[in-house]
Specification:
Structural class: mainly alpha
Strand content: under 5%
Radius of gyration: 17 Å
Number of domains: 1
Order of helices and strands: HHHHHHHHH
Shape: globular
Number of helices: 9
Helix content: over 70%
Length: about 230
């Protein structure tokens, strides 16, 4: 669930950005290990597929699945998006997988379902939002969204939404538990709103119409460097 890259930065700015990416990766991993995975909930996108795979074959494979499932999208990003975006994505994904591994034995929260959905989703959203805001990416579905946006005109959000609906539906079908799939979707909605708050803040959402003779170049800057959506 994440994309973004920012214009060239100084060394100090890069260090600060990587600090926030690392903190975001830690918070996202903490949410999954404490709230989501112990309660059989999943996230959307590639992270969701990794969680499904880990539930099928074993908890210890979660970090491995996260990296393996993201590799094709890292390659696509290398072919179709800037190299700096690929570096940021690889670092963020690696940190996320690392924290998932070292937090494997942390005590889970097994309380009220509403608490799990709200707090798990909020912490996950804050973590992912911090990574996006500082140029990190941990989910290859956004890469696919950027590519389809350029070629077919669908927005990144529309592509990601379709993929996530598929992931949650797949989860319910595999484990014959639509109740858990719906709770996972509710957790994702909470996380999505928190991501917006972290990236945009409490300011009112704004839209801008831009007329340009170089739409592809402008789209690359908006989606690849600024981490924003476009239609």
């Amino acid at each position: 669930m994440a994309l973004g890259h920012h214009p060239q930065k100084t060394l100090d700015q890069l260090i600060i950005s990587y600090f926030w990416i690392a903190l975001g990766a830690f918070l996202a991993a903490l949410s999954i290990r404490v709230f989501l995975f112990p309660n059989n909930l999943i996230d959307g996108g590639i992270v969701g597929l990794a969680l499904i795979g880990a539930r099928l074959v074993g908890d210890e494979f979660l970090s491995l699945f996260l990296i393996l499932f993201n590799l094709p999208f890292i390659y696509l990003a290398y072919k179709h998006i800037r190299r700096t975006f690929v570096i940021q994505m690889a670092i963020a994904t690696g940190l996320f997988a690392f924290f998932l591994m070292i937090l494997e034995n942390i005590s889970p929260f097994l309380g009220d379902p509403l608490e799990i959905i709200v707090f798990g989703g909020a912490i996950l959203g804050i973590g992912v939002g911090l990574m996006i805001r500082n140029g990190g990416s941990t989910d290859g579905t956004e890469v696919l969204g950027i590519i389809i946006n350029r070629k077919k005109g669908f927005t990144v959000g529309q592509v990601v939404l379709v993929i996530n609906i598929f992931v949650f539906s797949l989860y319910g079908w595999i484990f014959h538990d639509w109740h858990i799939a719906l709770k996972s979707m509710m957790t994702y909605i909470v996380a999505f709103k928190m991501i917006d708050l972290v990236i945009v803040g409490l300011d009112e959402l704004k839209s801008v119409m831009i007329i340009t003779s170089k739409p592809n170049e402008l789209a690359e800057v908006i989606t690849g460097e600024m981490g924003l959506g476009l239609t």
